[in-house]
Amino acid sequence: MSTAISLLLLLAVLGFAVVRPRGLPEAVGAVPAAVLTVLAGLVPWRDALHELGDLGPTVAFLAAVLLLAYLADRSGVFRFAGAAAARWSKGSPRRLLGLVFVIAASVTAALSLDATVVLLTPVVFTTASALAIRPKPHVYACNHLANSASLLLPVSNLTNLLAMSAAGLSFLGFAGLMALPWLAVIAVEYVILRRFFADDLATPPHRPPVEAVPAPRFALAVLGVTLAGFALASPLGVHPAWVALAGALVLAVRLRVGVPTLLRKANPGFCVFVLALGVVVLGVSRGGFGALVDRVAPHHADLLGLLAMAFLAALLANVLNNLPATLMLLPFTAHSPGLVLAVLLGANIGPNLTYVGSLATLLWRQILHKSGHPPVTGEFLRLGALTVPACLIVGVASLWVSLRVSGV
Amino acid sequence: MWVAEGTWAACVDAVRPLPGDVTLLHVVDVATAAALSGPVGLLGRSGPTDQGEYLLARAETELLDAAAARLGRDAAREVRRGRPEREVVAACANVDLLVLARDGDRSRLGPRSLGHHTRFVVDHAPCQIFLVWPESTPGLGTLLPPPHHDQIR
């Protein structure tokens, strides 16, 4: 019974977040659900408070990184990247695809997948269109890399931030183990996209005059120092959230952005939602469903265990959503950094399969006929079916090599 | 005339000397629209939903403006949205001639030198087709020698 209640609450929270009736923030659905989880006795209030305390710094870090990405955009970093890609591509669709891969992978790694989806993708579309290049392969590259290139750094994806604190990995330790899988997965995406979109990439190059955009040196320097700061902060015992906040404040002062705007762009509603979601998911993983997951989940970080864990995480990410999937699997894997990273491979790459993020999202959309969104196309699903299994297998194999070499 | 990104200029040049009324056709691919405004951010977060539509509409207008300017005479415009190959075929219901350009792998001339969408349109369009090369036409040198058994006969 309690299992059913906790699962219903989770589905209601996810449904509300997808549908957002009357544009209400996600938290409006999640907070009451979290309160109900505690009132129904699914999670003792002490444990709920403990969970909130654990998630707090992670969520603050997320808010600071979202802010950093917004301010980088205001400083013209993405416009500059688009103009540079246009110039170096010399009008060739294939060269532009290579450049988009480099830019999207870097932006995703450094400024989170959100920055790639919300800020970079429109710039890439405009750049391709201005060069009379068919924009489809390049937009798809952004879309896919936002997920699959979010493996490198803890800041790249909220799932990584959650995992870093769960597994007790340092910032550099995380990046060191994930560098090889990150590169391998990007290479797989590149090979598949090049072949999949061969027709659209075969148009002859045109070289219309490209307007030169001056490099936003100050903003790029601040971003560079902030990234270096992430790596240095952990050994010094400073939470990287402070570094991200410092970087954002420097840019905000330079751009003279007001405090109300900063508060709004840090997405406080979404941050509260993540905290509440943490409590609701705790209710699910303490119940029968969690026991089932525990029975199914592998417990050893050998090659087979890693592979099974990555596919399990990808499956859960597609059924529920990658955030609840990660929150649910982390407690069962916290004893082994290898398994935690395998969860991330699955949870980060997996969502490319269903384009809307997860089956839950898709179903809610279909049920409520939410308009304003283009339909899921067969092409997208086919591309996901090609890339996701390949990326998972190659990613897990290179993670296994990383773990063996580093001796974790 | 099918105005497609990357190859439209050759089509305009081919149409210019032809008599008759010209219609410039552009199709917004739903797959691009989906990828542009697909919610894949944190838990399905994405940019403002109308931003993708705005970008698509602006790019379409700029493309058709450029094509009309290169053509240099009055031309009607038709914009559609859907699967490009099917929309183009449907748009040809009442036209005499469709002008379109090759896309695909033109480094090895053979079946693959027509892209999937172009191939579909060439097979199914209910009108005559004028298929142009997006760059210069291939020389006779690209012709492979005939198969061995033909040479003996």
Can you offer a commentary on this structure?
The complex is a heterodimer of chains A (408) and B (153). With 408 residues, chain A is mainly α. Chain A has helices spanning 2-19, 27-39, 45-74, 77-89, 93-130, 136-148, 158-167, 171-196, 198-201, 217-236, 240-255, 259-265, 268-286, 288-296, 303-319, 322-333, 337-349, 359-368, 378-406. By secondary structure, chain B is an alpha/beta fold. Chain B is 40% helix and 16% strand. Chain B has six helices and four strands. In chain B, the strands form two sheets. In chain B, strands 1-2 form a two-stranded parallel sheet. In chain B, helix 5 links the parallel strand 3 and strand 4. In chain B, helix 1 packs parallel to helix 3 and helix 4 (84-91) packs parallel to helix 5. Chain B is globular and about 60 Å long. The mean pLDDT of chain B is 82. At the A-B interface, helix 1, helix 5, helix 6 and helix 9 of A face helix 2, helix 3 and helix 5 of B.
Task: Write the SSE topology.
The complex is a heterodimer of chains A (408) and B (153).
Chain A: H1 2-19, H2 27-39, H3 45-74, H4 77-89, H5 93-130, H6 136-148, H7 158-167, H8 171-196, H9 198-201, H10 217-236, H11 240-255, H12 259-265, H13 268-286, H14 288-296, H15 303-319, H16 322-333, H17 337-349, H18 359-368, H19 378-406
Helix pairs in contact in A: 1-2, 1-13, 1-18, 2-13, 3-5, 3-7, 3-11, 3-13, 4-5, 5-6, 6-8, 7-16, 7-17, 8-19, 10-11, 13-16, 15-16, 15-17, 15-19, 16-17, 17-19
Chain B: H1 8-15, E1 23-29, H2 30-37, H3 49-71, E2 76-82, H4 84-91, E3 97-101, H5 116-124, E4 128-132, H6 148-152
Parallel strand pairs in B: 1-2, 3-4
Could you name the key traits of this structure?
heterodimer, A: 408 residues, mainly alpha, 78% helix, globular, B: 153 residues, alpha/beta, two-stranded parallel sheet, two-stranded parallel ribbon, 6 helices
